[in-house]
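hey m, so remember when u said the tokens were messed up on ur end? i reran from scratch. heres the input so u can diff it against urs
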Amino acid sequence: MKRIKFILPFLILTFSINNLFSLERVEFNKINFVKDSLPNGLKVIYSVDKSAPVVAVVVNYMVGSKDENPDRTGFAHFFEHLMFEASKNYERASIDKFVDEAGGQLNASTGFDQTSYFIKVPSNEIKLPLWVESSRMRGLKVDTIGVETQRGVVKEERKMRNDNTPYGTMLEKTVQHLFKGSSYAWTPIGSEQHIDKATIDEFRTFYDNFYQPNNAVLAIVGDIDIQETKKLVRDYFGNIPPAPTPKREPFKIAELKEGYREIVEDQKAQLPAVFISYRAPSMLDNDIYAFELLNQILSRGESSRLYQRLVDKEQVAVQAASNNLSFHKIGGVLFYGVASPGKKIEDVEKLIYDEINKIVKNGITDEELTKAKNILEVEFIRDKKNVLKKAQDLSMTWQFLGNPDLVNTDLEKYLKVTKEDIQRVAKKYLDTDKKVVLIYVPKQS
């Protein structure tokens, strides 16, 4: 997996439900783990997986774009880049070389709520990721060379993702209006002007505030001996001094009092597209289980209601699907359709509403609910076979939900969802005019 930053794969979701059902089912073995913490506040979680001689090390920092000053957006994402520069222990641009030579892989990602760093190596190389992560946790060099290098990289990334991509401003416009008045109202890529104006002292303040052991969870999963690994963790991280609780921007979320609609002329778009977003449950809300199943039935894969209606039956769209925006404090869902050549985007929008309203008024069938649960169960089990995914899930679940054992019990909550639950959340979140609608049309030359 390349080191790509926060990006939602709109227009390339081609999930095949039939393929999932053809896969051989496997048994789910509960993830056993051991929780620990250091005197400096670092939370550590260990899990043994002897299925392969590899180990995954994940450090999840509880800092995302929502923790930024509105006048200095993009800092969390900027640091995802900067953390691959020099530290007191190694020269700049060395981490990739170290991990490659050890036969490993590395990656990082920035979201609205967190920034994550992950390294997977052969188990006999476990000291390498621990050394790297401890070195850059408090020994990162926030200096002119690194800052100016990454300033240029981030600006180019923004141009590639936003300015030179069809519908590239869509996510920014969506969150700006869907979460207006909150710190979810901008995307992790942030503003180019904010990054340009930021000083090195501002970057250092951000680093010292958030990149501290008491704001992180370290997860280590793989072919390990827990007692030996605990000793290594203390050797590498134990001498980092404790820090004050990070100072955060006050979070608030205003009621969405009215809808928003905009037509955007897009030079890069070849086909018209509509993006319709609603507020949805947060990752902490119990409604999330029913809502995710609802979203799967409506718009995930080629057997979903939207795809079957808009693409297969009516043939007004070349793609119809959705993406969840599941955040710590609130959530959203974004439905989209790309018009077929010669078809009206108004018809695409109308049919999306029609399929949503059918569930609001009539609910779903037993068959749809069973299929959605089966798909989710297969995915749940498959994820538990991957040491990196397990490490990510354990760290995130502990950090945001307060209990890593939820990685073992979450499935039960999905399986308890009823048809009535699906219809209830459809009415609660989707039966409203308080939505954001963006219509992208090709700009005429």
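this time it looks ok to me. Residues 29-237 form a domain with the Cytochrome Bc1 Complex; Chain A, domain 1 fold (CATH 3.30.830.10). if urs says something different then somethings off w ur setup not the seq
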